[in-house]
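Lab meeting, action items carried over

1. Structure of the two-component assembly. Owner: GW. Status: complete.
Input record:
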Amino acid sequence: MTLKSAYMDYQATTPLDERVLASMLPYLTEKFGNPHSAEHRFGWEAEAALDVAREQVAGVISAPSEAITFLSGATEANNLVIKGVMEQWGRNKPHLITVSTEHKCVLEAAEVCRKAGFRVTLLPVGQDGIIDLNQLEEAIDAETAMVSVMAVNNEIGIIQPLSEIGELCRKNGVLFHTDAAQAYGKIPLDVEAMGVDFMSVSAHKIYGPKGVGALYHKLGKYTTLTPQMHGGGQEGGLRAGTQAPALVAGLGRAADICAAEMAQEQGRLTTMMNRLVSGLKKSAPALIINGHPDKRWIGNLNVSFPGLVGDRLFADIRGLAVSTGAACASAVAGPSYVLDAIGLSDMDAKSSLRLGIGRFTTDEEIDFALDKIAEAIAKQGGCE
Amino acid sequence: MTTPIYMDYNATAPIRDSVIEMVSLAMQTVGNPSSVHTAGRSVRRLVEEARVKVAALAGCRVRDVTFCSGGTEASNAVIRGSGAASIIISAVEHECGFAASKHAGVPTYVVEVDRKGLVDQNKLREMLREAPAPALVSVMLANNETGIIQPVREIADIAHEFGARMHTDAVQAAGKTPIDFNALGADYLTLSSHKVGGPQGVGAIITAPTAPLAPLVAGGGQELGRRSGTENVAGIAGFGVAALEAMDDLADMNRIGALRERFEADVTSHANNVCLIGLESPRTANTSCVAMPGVKGETQVMHFDLNGIFLSSGSACSSGKVKVSHVLSAMGYEDDTANASIRVSLGRLTTESDVDALIKAWISLYDRTAARVNS
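Predicted assembly:
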């Protein structure tokens, strides 16, 4: 075996694409200006970077570029939408609907709203991780301001039925936000066709830099948000603070590459994922795939190995970078709330792994992972 | 045209070569700092090493440093998250301070400055008596437009006398004047990376051990729960390198200060009606705010631009919008003077010949316009 390690944690973060890095470097070196310095050339160059990136980011989801706001990442975007909508519209519509399996930052922002006196409904999900549209429709009432449902789940990779949700929201005059950190640039998304009013995007999940993201914010008076960061009036007043042209240029280029290579990437990853799954099934016939078997992002696999001790399994596969849950929760002990929500027992949840593959995953790495996991399973006497 | 001369360091500073190296290196290191596997831990280390360096720049404990997306976010987080019952803010703060306090949901009081640009301490005491307690007093360490340095220690002592907490925006002070968080006595201090030669999009909030901070951005609980969101690893690592070098640069401030003195002396001896702002107060060594009577700031900026010199007529975020500087108005300057002022901000790459060019361009414009207007 030649490999000593393999990175299979593409849902936590992705390696930076060299093409992205190349697009960023000029803004770190000669074009270092403050994009808000309107009085000289250094400022104009930096401002132009923002304009180009806005086009690139908007293009991926068929949005007009004016509807894109840059900020520090998907966490900030989710905070801005959830708190901003409730602050703006909550007086007449004090009800927010979201889902129990959302990313921690959506749940935390919703919790802030609840503490502020708003009503928050957390929808359950089925065993496949997908929400029940009938339940959603029942949950919507005259006071509902917004529904927030993520596009692709970060732990189990399932894809929520965005178009159907969007249609329901439109029919009921309710705003629709989707946290697309795990979906943007990976699966086709069209904000108009899907009826999405707000979409959160992260650069470091699409081979871009950490510390930058975008919010798609449908133009119009019904989608007004109360800004959460105040200051120099940048980004149309929606988000103050000096923009980072290097980071934003990186996000733009990353988005562009994803759009151009989406179909081809999906094909490549499907082949690779099939090999990974069938290999794992060979060494662990009892393996359970968590979440819907087909309605999922093909770069994510969340599996449980019934009967195995999770901690030992995780320790025995050292060198293979995978995770047992969402990265931000990695440092926190206790089983995943997402696996709990899809009805997994504590034991099965603790014996689960999240494997994420992506643009730079190689066949050798798949082999390495299969060998490592097979060895670890054998040490515990198999998984049948 | 010759090489452009950049004299707008207070808007943003050119990024340091060593920072670019570090940022590129960090960008090529894979991993989410919250992941427990080896890849995650190696990027976590980049963040923690930077924290040590930024703590050194601020003169605080390492664990009191919280990284965020920049000075604006840092100020917003403190002003809206300190839990104070009222906010007292100086009349010369950066715009983000005023904007944040407007949305803090508690009464806001603006404390005036005197002609020298310094906070009126008697007024501050009056306000502290009147404002709902506990108050948060927010006074910047160094001003972005004039470079004037406030006596933060004295202001913090007054605030504490009344049981208030004190925040100082040190974005423009870092790397220009030494900062010692403990000696300043502030409860909160905020920093920005791109003003010290680091990348844009990163900043830090320094909090005293007893100072509360409700997170502005909730989520995965990063940064000890004070600021959620995957850390901008490369940006933070770059900020660390910049912080370290910015401290070394303090030794260079004598040289930069001498360049500024030469500019100010030359224009004063050429034109006796020139107005130099902030001369009677301590200032950061790199900043000069100077009014050429009768000539609009924008006209001057354009003239310098044509001569390959880049500077501004106000702070960058508001340049482009034509309005009178609130800082100069607060100091009691008439609109005529405020509208005729420009900001020259020098930095580590500024040379003697750059300043020669600046003086020459200033004098030629003066002779063509102001001399005639004023004769």
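2. GW to write a short summary for the group page. Key points so far: The mean pLDDT of chain B is 93. The longest helix of chain B spans residues 352-374.
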